[in-house]
Automatic annotation (TrEMBL):
Protein name in the entry: Terpene synthase
A molecular-function term among this protein's GO annotations: terpene synthase activity
Highest taxon of the lineage: Eukaryota
Cofactor(s) listed: Mg(2+)
Coiled coil: none
Pfam families: Terpene_syn_C_2
Family from the record: Belongs to the terpene synthase family.
EC number(s) given by UniProt: 4.2.3.-
UniProt entry tagged with the keyword Magnesium: yes
Length: 323
């Protein structure tokens, strides 16, 4: 089996997105604190207190912790089979039962990091939100274990089935949970049909953007847990056609998000302000995810990012099976 070079054109998917690139004034402090935390796996309350900026900064720290834990879990389970992933996730899930009990040294590093993340998350959330946060994380763990099992049999799901699965494996809902806590949204508002629609749209936008940009990496790893891969396998499309199909669906979801926002009901002055803050945070999360893709080496090297800025062309090595 040989390789051939394939390319696809990558559109600027957020060209008309109304939430611009912004930088949180506390992001550098929070990033340093969380990087140090991940390096030594020790959450020192004194370190956080030295840089504390009240509730807003606490939420930012938890957001960093959440992303750190999700990336670690993703990287651990990406190389595991179904049985191994379930074992890893069972160890992680156990920390929610005893979050103040330090993990044994023989437990995987990600378990202790997750425990420390959850201890910090408890500090920004009421009890009912903690239960919701635990459910969200458990759904994510169950989905990653199922994804690992599917990888073993090289099964490609139908698109709607894939999207339902992807919403869980993405880890986006545990991330959005932090926004819910930061905005102190009441439970009935979080469960309101309009808010659920906006949350789902924002989640799908992140998924589509991520799937388009991560496809070369996923393809190289042999993974078909990706919208572009599903379009290729299920619809018989070319690579560019699969990317265009994904882009079209993505833009439809973006329009739905903006239309739903414009039709948002009014509650009262306080709640309306909290809801507006939540929606803005969703919009900025979509923007932040897109900017992150092009400012890190998770999916593209420095040279690839430079070429993308100049040509908008993504190169990918595809397998060529001899006839």
């Amino acid at each position: 089996m040989s390789l051939r070079l394939a390319t696809f054109q990558l559109s600027n998917l957020l060209k008309d997105w109304p939430w611009p690139r912004l930088r949180n004034p506390h992001s550098e402090e929070a990033a340093i604190a969380c990087t140090d935390w991940l390096k030594d796996s020790l959450l020192d309350p004194n370190d956080l207190e030295a840089a504390r900026r009240g509730y807003e900064f606490d939420s930012l720290i938890v957001a960093f912790h959440t992303l750190g834990v999700l990336f670690l879990t993703d990287d651990f389970t990406d190389v595991e089979n179904g049985s191994e992933a379930r074992s890893t996730n069972n160890i992680i899930a156990d920390i929610f039962v005893s979050p103040y009990q330090q993990r044994k040294k023989e437990d995987k590093y990600v378990a202790e990091v997750t425990r420390q993340y959850w201890v910090s998350a408890i500090g920004i959330s009421p009890w009912w939100q903690q239960e919701r946060g635990m459910r969200r994380f458990k759904e994510y763990l169950d989905a990653t274990a199922l994804e690992a099992s599917v990888r073993e049999i090289d099964y490609v799901r139908d698109f709607e089935d894939y999207l339902r699965m992807r919403r869980s494996t993405s880890g986006i809902l545990p991330s959005f949970w932090v926004i819910e806590c930061a905005q102190r949204l009441p439970e009935d508002i979080i469960k309101h049909e309009t808010i659920v629609t906006l949350t789902t749209c924002a989640m799908d936008l992140v998924i589509y953007d991520n799937d388009i940009c991560s496809y070369p990496k996923e393809h190289a790893a042999g993974s078909t847990h990706n919208t572009v891969a599903v379009a290729l396998h299920k619809f018989g499309l070319s690579l560019q056609e699969a990317v265009d199909w994904t882009t079209k669906r993505r833009q439809e979801v973006a329009r739905k998000f903006l239309t739903t926002r414009d039709e948002l009901p009014s509650w009262d002055k306080v709640l309306d302000k909290q809801v507006a803050g939540y929606i803005d945070a969703l919009g900025y999360w979509v923007r932040g995810n897109w900017e992150w893709v092009f400012e890190t080496t998770r999916y593209f090297t420095k040279e690839e990012r430079k070429r993308l800025q100049e040509t908008r062309v993504v190169e990918i090595q595809t397998k060529l099976v001899p006839s």
